Amino acid sequence: MATTTKVQDMAETDLENQIAELREQLTTISRSLSEQGYELFENGGSAFDSMRRSTRRAARFVGEEAQLVTEKARENPMTAVAIVSAVAGLGLLAGLSAYRR
């Protein structure tokens, strides 16, 4: 009986030590995750700002190109009509071929 009690005490002590170690590890992991989450939030904000700047540059570029296309269309109206007609025709053919499948 004394041996059983001694083994139980050792097992309890071992389990208590393991639980204490697990709690320490859980605290460390929780702290690490909260720090990373904060860093991700900060990086997310800078990524958003970078994306916003890139979007503005792209919009500016598209606007400039649209203006150039408009000027060329005014200089050569027949060419512009031919190009628009060709694109419309290709779109119509693509739509018909997709409809038949």
UniProtKB/TrEMBL annotation:
Membrane-spanning parts: 78-99
UniProt keyword annotations, A-Z: Membrane, Transmembrane, Transmembrane helix
Protein's recorded name: DUF883 domain-containing protein
Annotated organism of origin: Phyllobacterium endophyticum
